[in-house]
């Protein structure tokens, strides 16, 4: 049987305005290394064959030197510039990932991802075509309307907080992105499984990851992530 080719796209092109720092959040120091370091290390230790790192154009050369040469992450084969929006960066990564059979897409600002989570998502992608990690929500969720008035309370037992990585059959997610780009759509694209749902009617398999797999987005996330990394 021919070996399946699996590649990962790690997104690190965002500016992170909510972090309120000049340095993009993925390059901030966290427990002695950059936030991005931990995601790349997890993929280095996984069964993924190759990693495409998508960065801001001005950071690309620095990232090649830092992560490929200094840290020696051998699976990082390409560092490419991203686009104006997250979906532009994902699409650039998808084009750079060809050819492959399966692709994982991960936000580089999630440093607590583990090889175990990566493998679970890959297994879900192989068996279902579309898969994401996440966890059931703990809090009651309200839907807000005008003037921040609550208009609905969804049943909590059916709600999950969605994380990354997300995994896909490569032809499937490439087609979903291409269909999205062909139209004049104004939908907010917050992850990639929703494109497969909208344009290909492909439902995603949900696999439990970890409540610790947080996204470093605002200043208070950094000390929390550091405690998790230290095993506290």
How would you describe this structure to a colleague?
- The structure is a single chain.
- The model has no long low-confidence stretch (mean pLDDT 94).
- It is globular and about 50 Å long.
- The protein is α/β, with parallel strands linked by helices.
- Helix content is 33%, strand content 24%.
- The longest helix is centred in the middle third of the chain and has 14 residues, at 115-128.
- The chain has one domain: Spore Coat Polysaccharide Biosynthesis Protein SpsA, Chain A.
Question: Could you give a quick summary of the protein structure above?
Answer:
The protein is of the alpha/beta class and 232 residues long. The chain is built from seven helices and eleven strands. It has a single domain, classed as Spore Coat Polysaccharide Biosynthesis Protein SpsA, Chain A (Alpha-Beta Complex), CATH 3.90.550.10.
